Amino acid sequence: MQTATTAVPPTDCNDQPLLFQDLGSRQVVADFSGGYLSSDGGALLLRQLDRGLGLTRTLAQAFTDRRDPRYCDHTLEQLLAQRVHGLALGYEDLNDHDTLRRDPLLAAACDKPDPLGRDRLHAHDQGVALAGSATLHRLELGNHRQDRTHKITHDPARVEATLLQLGVRCLDKHARELIVDLDAMGHLVHGLQEGRHFSAYYDGYCYLPLYVFVGDVPLWAQLRPGESDAAAGVVPALEKIIAAIRKRCKQTRIILRGDSAFAREDIMAWCERHGVYYCLGLAGNARLLEMIPATLAAARARRCLTGAPSARAYADLEYQTLKSWSHPRRVVVKAEVMAVGDNPRFVVTNLPAQGFRGEDRQRFSAARLYEEIYCGRGEMENVLKQQTLDLSADRLSTHHLGSNQLRLWLATLAYLLLERLRSVGLRGSELAHATVGTMRTRLLKVAASVTVSVRRVWVRLCSAFPLQALYRRCAWRLGCVAAGAT
């Protein structure tokens, strides 16, 4: 049995308005005729800051572009700016750029002369100003693919030097003291990436990058295979980092700080030879525990007298390992007694217990050195949390170790950009100590309407934006930085 069918003329559902619940006596109707809009009004601030720092301009010098410019819509600087600014704005995946490429405000931030993409070479690209995910993927894989579509390569040593150069430029050249923080943080991978290794500590396959920061300023981000020792490559890194710091900060005292993974003879001996102070965690052992019964007894007596749930006592020791250390070194002991048991901790340092002439002589005493200087390294862990949680620096999903290293550098440069936004543009404001994620949510994610004419790009930011005064002040400060740079 056959049934008759009736042809229905096709309708374009995309043109149909969206109907929502009435608002009193008024209908609520929505459509997509609002024009060119963006949710990233803060991209203009990033552009101002990028120009002042010269970040993407300097980074581009570490790349080689063999493309014929006659057939290219996107310059090398524009591609790098798109990737770094995209990370700063919270778009860590390359797939995000298949939609972001139509964002006129991000295009303006990347210095595209026509943010609406009407100047594209090919007709099918008209109206799309930025590069898509495939083009950016070729940028990252240029060192590992040798064919006609992969014509952009980078020099890893120069990219590494660029991060160090830009980071050191952000340090106070008149600082009396700088603390250089070391940390190794496992980044889990979820594929067959080159250099992956199973770690029982992280319960998965991972890389083990080495990070070096001064305060909130990143200086080093070295991706290492997962089987690497935590201290691998630290001395060669320090040779470059300390030399760069001293070139800018000639009279500055430098203190190296890290956990017990870095308390190695070669690192400490290098610091001693080159006039660098160190304050490093030291793993406890039976010999050290045999040296502190009196200190533990003092902590127990203090706990009994005060009735507190825990009590601490501090002491200075002179200690040398049986084989690995070349000479005795100062070890600071924190003997803590708690209800659940004893919790002794150790720190090895070459900072003088009597302090420095003309300064607070008690600053490097055992108690203050442990509590104020060594425990301050927890701030670097907060910075690394922002790296991974807010910038997805651990999104190392390409196959090659080298291209994943480039991704790590780009994420670290995006963090540097946002750190400068916080320390320069937001200085003294309610966001002066905000995390990267908070800055992005409260300042950078502002709705904007973009109108492009012959003479101007007019950006109309949301009239209900609650931080308008802060946005204006930040834009003015960053404009002064950009003007000084040019």
Describe the structure.
The chain has 486 residues and is α+β, with helices and mostly antiparallel strands. It folds into two domains: 38-154 and 430-485, no CATH class; 157-389, Alpha-Beta Complex (Transposase Inhibitor Protein From Tn5, Chain A, domain 1). The chain has 16 helices and 19 strands. The strands form five sheets. Strands 6, 10, 11, 12, 13, 14, 15, 16 and 17 form a nine-stranded mixed β-sheet that branches. A hairpin with a 2-residue loop joins strand 15 and strand 16 (341-342). The longest helix is centred in the C-terminal third of the chain and has 25 residues, at 401-425. The model is unreliable at 1-9 (pLDDT under 50).
TL;DR of this structure?
The chain has helices spanning 43-53, 55-60, 76-88, 97-100, 104-109, 133-141, 156-169, 234-248, 265-273, 286-290, 293-306, 366-374, 378-389, 401-425, 436-444, 468-485; strands at 18-23, 26-30, 37-38, 63-65, 152-154, 177-184, 187-188, 197-199, 204-207, 210-214, 217-222, 253-258, 277-282, 310-319, 329-338, 341-342, 345-349, 448-452, 457-461. It has 486 residues and is of the alpha+beta class.
Give the biggest sheet. 9 strands, mixed
The residue-averaged pLDDT reads: 91
**In CATH terms, what is the architecture of the largest domain?**
Alpha-Beta Complex
Q: How much helix, percentage-wise, in residues?
A: 25-40%
Low-confidence runs of at least 5 consecutive residues: 1-9
Predict the CATH topology of the largest domain: Transposase Inhibitor Protein From Tn5, Chain A, domain 1
The radius of gyration over CA amounts to 28 Å
Tell me the number of helical segments per DSSP (H or I, 4 or more residues long).
16
Beta-strand residue fraction: 15-25%
Which class of the largest domain in CATH terms? Answer: Alpha Beta
The rounded distance between the terminal residues' Cα atoms is 81 Å
